[in-house]
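Forgive a beginner's question, but would it be possible to get a protein, spelled out as residues, together with the matching structure tokens, please?
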Amino acid sequence: MKVLIVFAHPEPQSLNAALLRLAVEELESQGHEVQVSDLYAMRWKSQVDRDDFPDLADDAPLRVTTVSSEATASDGLTEDVKSEQAKLLWADTVILQFPLWWFSMPAILKGWVERALSCGFGYGLGEYNDQHFGDRYGEGKLSGKRAMLVVTVGGWPEHYSARGINGPIDDLLFPINHGVLYYAGFDVLPPFVAYRVHRSDDNVFRTIGDELRQRLRTLATTKSIPYRRQNGGDYDIPRLQLRPGLEENRATGFALHLAGGKE
């Protein structure tokens, strides 16, 4: 298997960095090929602006979706973006590893998403009509590949539970799992989440590391989150609302978009 790890943490001596080294070691010991995009070490440019589109005329307006589509089609993207896209096409599995900051990914990783998943590569694909609303949510250039989040948080598991003050962790990660990865076509695996990392010691790290190793050993066999395909018949096109009567287990909110009503 070919595995790309996109890593977003600024400190090489952090627990996150130690988990990255452990992950690479474990995957390579299994015979997998691994590439790492260490965004802070790469000094990845996180903002989308005119510099991303060298062929855009100085007096032309920056309509990001339009110029992104044109640049993708004409091989006019910047070299750093094309390099990341080549890694994505190379990989069978993509892992996004990051600390949960302000209930989301670090800005540098959000910038990687916005720039690497350009229009015509990560979105904006396929036909749009009354039966098919683009190649997305289970379809697209990256379909057939697997993806997983490796996330560290400072709070307790209870803080991220159904009754926890922060809300369920699966709800917090839904915009990334469903809105980024599944949107772009990936089969999305349940996330690996490490809790209370700010108070970790060697014993805690060994426990987290052992749990992560086990997850990495089952990358090829773990069942993906059963998200509903947009064009699979469950949604009314073009309104893109779940058809009446398909709710399961009294599901509401994000759980509506899971076949079975829960992860």
Observations:
- The chain is about 30% helix and 15% strand.
- The helical segments are 15-29, 39-42, 64-73, 79-90, 107-116, 169-182, 202-217.
